[in-house]
Amino acid sequence: METRAVELTSTLNGAVTVKVIPGHFATKHSHVSHCIDMTKIKSEMNMALATAKMFAEVFRFTPVDTIISLERMKMVGAFLASDLALNGINVNRNIAVISPEITNDLLLLRDNFLPYVKGQHVLLLTASATTGQTIMSALEGIRYYGGEAVGAATVFGGDFQAVDVPVARLFSVEDIPGYESHEPTACPLCRSGVRVDALVNSYGYSKI
């Protein structure tokens, strides 16, 4: 399967790349025609730093007290907090980076994390948001716990809107010709008898 992978480079920063693998993949919420491999962004310092800088340019003049990092994006979140605290309106602000639990698609904050969200300006950071369901649920959770959601940042995002909250995407579905996302029960590949190549989540992919 890896032999099909092609590298997609950000048009904003050539140091940021993802691998795109065509096929038939099952995620938590949908079946998709391409797997977006972000291992380097999540694992390598230089690419995580470059990714964070791109997000920082978008939110330079947005007040941020806390970054909620989902899908193993905490290194990017730490670099993003550092960059925001050096430039713009957040200079010298001690920005927190937390990774709460997601249970049954709901954001769960333990008591020790509550002070970082209640009454705070919160920026959501995630790796992928194809349908927008995870982002919308997390934003709802931030508001439920008394935080003010000020934006969302995702490396790869589908064509969705978050009401009253700006969404920054580094790569979009338009960057991948032929990209499709379907509800599992309405997947045309399944109906055509095409086997699923791999299961995909925030940790990567597992062939089946």
Summarize the structure.
This protein is an alpha/beta fold and 208 residues long.
Q: Helical amount among residues, as a percent range?
A: 10-25%
Secondary-structure element order, as H and E?
Answer: EEEHHEHEEEEHEEEHEE
CATH architecture: 3-Layer(aba) Sandwich
Per DSSP, the total helix count is 5
Distance N to C terminus: 11 Å
Main β sheet profile: 6 strands, mixed
**What is the CATH class name?**
Alpha Beta
Outline, from the CA principal axes?
globular
SS-derived structural category: alpha/beta
Stretches with pLDDT under 50, minimum 5 residues: none
Q: What does the radius of gyration come to?
A: 17 Å
Q: How big a fraction of the residues is strand?
A: 25-35%
Please give the number of β-strands: 13
Average pLDDT number: 92
CATH topology: Rossmann fold
Give an overview in words.
This protein has 208 residues and is an alpha/beta fold. It has one domain: 3-Layer(aba) Sandwich (Rossmann fold). The chain is built from 5 helices and 13 strands. The strands form 3 sheets. Strands 1, 2, 3, 11, 12 and 13 form a 6-stranded mixed beta sheet that branches. A 5-stranded parallel beta sheet has the order 5-4-8-9-10, with helices on both faces. A hairpin with a 4-residue loop joins strand 2 (17-26) and strand 3. Helix 2 (45-58) packs across helix 3. The radius of gyration is 17 Å and the shape is globular.
